[in-house]
Amino acid sequence: MNRYLPVARQHFLAALASTSVVVKSISAVVVLLYLLSWAVDTPYALGVTPGYLFPPNFWVWTLLTHGVVEQHIWGVAVNVGTVMACGRLLEPLWGALELLIFFAVVNVSAGLLAGLAYLLTYVATFDLTYLFAVRAYGAAGFLGGVLVALKQTMGDTTVLRVPQVRLKAAPALVLLFLSLLRLSGLLESSAPLAAYSFGALSGWVYLRFYQRHSRGRGDMSDHFAFASFFPEALQPAVGLLAGLVHAALVKLKVCRKMVKRYDVGAPSSITISLPGTDPQDAERRR
């Protein structure tokens, strides 16, 4: 083990050196807050606690800070590794500013939705544990968003050969893994599972409807539909339900309609393009 540690450290430093200021800054904040956690209860002060997030306490800064708070060294490794993976795989496609926007959108949305979910659970059960004993913090929310983004950009990449697992299945597999850990008692709190789920959902909504790029906004391609995250047997039912929800959100002007554009300039053929699909994206997916 001692022989491999210097090599691993060298590769890590080389990878970190090749990343942008955004990746370096986020990684540095994660490490610094971990060191600070030895003296201060950072999950309490900077993590999302549902009872303190909403009025009258209104600790809104925790929506920005909870994603960079870690209390264990393995959490630091997962957090920094997730950010560095974004720097290597997504930042060349998006740019540093878009990566920072995605990081902020996913973490703020995951923290807010997780806090709201626990607040509603308290309303249903009147159990104060859901308000003041829950701490949502760490990389789980952003990890969910990143896996969704990787499914969008390189979903056909094989990550395991035996059994064959492609990257597009990673969001669902990680959700299943966290659920099993929670059911078995190895995961002490449900907060990481909730944060991961809401992070993946918010990441999909942002990439599907709002992300700006050279072709306009969002990605309305079929391979990135909400139903594509589920097993094939469930996709028709999920697709129908998702369509009804989308139609309701369109009427409320939260989402926009899926629009197809037809180019009939060429006399011999009709070219169909969808807003949100880039030629570079199509080539990368192939």
From TrEMBL:
Q: How does it sit in the membrane?
A: Multi-pass membrane protein
Which residues span the membrane?
A: 12-38, 99-124, 130-150, 193-210
SUPFAM superfamilies tied to this protein: Rhomboid-like
Annotated keywords: Membrane, Transmembrane, Transmembrane helix
Annotated localization: Membrane
Query: Could you tell me the Gene Ontology terms of the biological process aspect for this record?
Result: retrograde vesicle-mediated transport, Golgi to endoplasmic reticulum
Say yes or no: keyword Transmembrane helix present.
Answer: yes
Gene Ontology CC: one annotated term:
membrane
Q: Can you say what this protein is called?
A: Transmembrane protein 115
Q: Which organism is it from?
A: Dissostichus mawsoni
